């Protein structure tokens, strides 16, 4: 039992379902779905769609979608709907233009948005109703307006300079060059119209036709090379989640190109330490967790990319024997100064929600524009702000996370890192 005089949250208990989101309006919309007999996927997609309207700094239909679904007696289900880079874009092109690293405000950092396709795919595979019904609360919020909540306002204000610098964003998301004031009602009529097109035509209304053409035109006039064909060929891909144990708990993550296995790597590193004996807020425990995280992020930055081009296997990266060897580099008394700095382009903002229904179906879902308001690029006609997940690519010949993939040079690359303790468990793909 916690101290009820200590201002912290209690566990949630519910008989017929539960939903946790980052915004009351989204939670309310999802719970209404559960009350009407919809299942966890119906509620999760409905809530996520509302979030793309009422919490725009964190998510939007110009972003990506990821999901894990658990059902009693069935295998875990994963869905990866992160979009590909423009087919015409290459590292050589960027280097010829003088690039040494990705620019997170450039049209080149925008990959095909995958979230709309993820919603449709989830509803078709596990839901009980269609995308048209799931989008209605989001359409009402965009058309009638929504109150700007304090936390949303705080996030919004940190991005107003980005939106102003990118131009069109001021039209849809700023008032006289500033974020809407806390407590005011903000409307997004262009986004409402776009959502109506998607509700009427399904995901095809986003990836083909006028909406896709508007996005491509916006990127092209900013020097991008995205094409309408890039949009039309996007797929949301079911995948088998990667499961790894930490003591008596199983942690499931989507496989790469996502970076979820980083959490499993970090927990593997911490497993040999008696973390439970240390106070959660103690210097000693924070030090161990920070050191393990720094190693985990260094591994992420060096090795994780598109699975078709990674130089090592997922199984090797989450191998416990290898992690045990790596963990010997963690000194409980001091910082390891041999680790490379964390890639700053992996610092991101997003929403997360989870939902469980009365039948035990559980959904873990992320809709992400990567950084706050993504690239800051907003389409004029359709009112869509576009993610900048492509900022995570490396303009480095032979790295596994380049736009077009890796060469054999990635093998030599990872052998140079000082935290490479043993070569035994690293299996070349």
Helices, strands, pairings?
Elements: E1 17-20, H1 24-35, H2 40-54, E2 64-70, E3 77-81, H3 91-96, H4 115-126, H5 131-134, H6 136-144, E4 146-147, H7 150-157, H8 160-166, H9 169-173, E5 185-186, H10 189-201, H11 204-207, H12 210-220, H13 228-232, E6 237-239, E7 242-246, E8 249-253, H14 261-270, H15 283-303, H16 314-317, H17 320-327, E9 350-357, E10 362-368, H18 409-415
Antiparallel strand pairs: 1-9, 2-3, 2-10, 3-6, 4-5, 7-8, 9-10
Helix pairs in contact: 1-2, 2-6, 6-10, 14-15, 14-17
Account of the 3D structure:
The chain is an alpha+beta fold. It has 18 helices and ten strands. The protein has a six-stranded antiparallel beta sheet with strand order 1-9-10-2-3-6, with helices on one face. Strands 4-5 form a two-stranded antiparallel sheet. A two-stranded antiparallel ribbon has the order 7-8. A hairpin with a 4-residue loop joins strand 9 and strand 10. Helix 6 runs antiparallel to helix 10. It is globular and about 55 Å long. The C terminus is likely disordered.
């Amino acid at each position: 039992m916690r101290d009820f005089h200590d201002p912290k949250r209690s566990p949630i208990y519910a008989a017929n379902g539960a939903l946790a989101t980052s915004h009351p309006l989204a939670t309310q919309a999802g719970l209404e779905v559960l009350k009407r007999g919809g299942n966890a996927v119906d509620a999760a997609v409905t809530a996520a769609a509302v979030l793309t309207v009422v919490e725009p700094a964190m998510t939007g239909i110009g972003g990506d979608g990821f999901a894990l679904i658990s059902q009693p007696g069935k295998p875990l289900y994963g869905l990866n709907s992160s979009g590909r880079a423009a087919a015409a874009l290459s590292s050589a092109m960027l280097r010829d233009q003088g690039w040494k690293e990705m620019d997170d405000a450039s049209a080149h950092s925008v990959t095909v948005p995958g979230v709309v396709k993820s919603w449709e795919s989830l509803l078709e595979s596990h839901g009980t109703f269609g995308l048209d019904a799931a989008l209605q609360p989001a359409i009402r919020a965009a058309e009638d307006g929504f109150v700007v909540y304090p936390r949303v306002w705080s996030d919004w204000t940190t991005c107003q300079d980005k939106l102003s610098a990118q131009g069109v964003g001021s039209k849809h998301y700023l008032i006289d060059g500033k974020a809407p004031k806390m407590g005011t009602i903000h409307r997004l009529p262009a986004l409402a119209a776009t959502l109506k097109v998607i509700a009427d035509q399904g995901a095809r209304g986003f990836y083909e036709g006028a909406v896709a053409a508007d996005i491509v035109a916006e990127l092209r006039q900013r020097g991008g090379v995205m094409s309408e064909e890039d949009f039309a060929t996007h797929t949301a891909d079911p995948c088998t989640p990667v499961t790894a144990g930490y003591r008596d708990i199983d942690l499931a993550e989507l496989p790469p190109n996502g970076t979820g296995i980083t959490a499993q790597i970090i927990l593997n590193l911490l497993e040999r330490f008696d973390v439970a004996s240390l106070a959660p807020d103690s210097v000693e425990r924070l030090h161990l967790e920070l050191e393990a995280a720094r190693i985990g992020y260094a591994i992420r930055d060096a090795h994780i990319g598109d699975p078709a081009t990674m130089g090592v296997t997922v199984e090797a990266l989450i191998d416990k024997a290898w992690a045990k060897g790596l963990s010997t580099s963690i000194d409980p008394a001091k910082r390891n100064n041999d680790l490379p700095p964390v890639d700053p382009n992996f610092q991101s903002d997003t929403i997360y929600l989870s939902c469980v229904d009365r039948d035990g179906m559980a959904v873990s879902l992320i809709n992400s524009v990567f950084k706050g308001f993504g690239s800051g690029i907003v389409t004029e006609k359709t009112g869509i702000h576009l993610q900048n997940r492509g900022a995570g690519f490396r303009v480095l010949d032979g790295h596994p996370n380049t736009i077009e993939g890796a060469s054999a040079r990635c093998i030599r690359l990872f052998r140079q890192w000082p935290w490479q303790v043993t070569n035994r468990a690293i299996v070349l793909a």
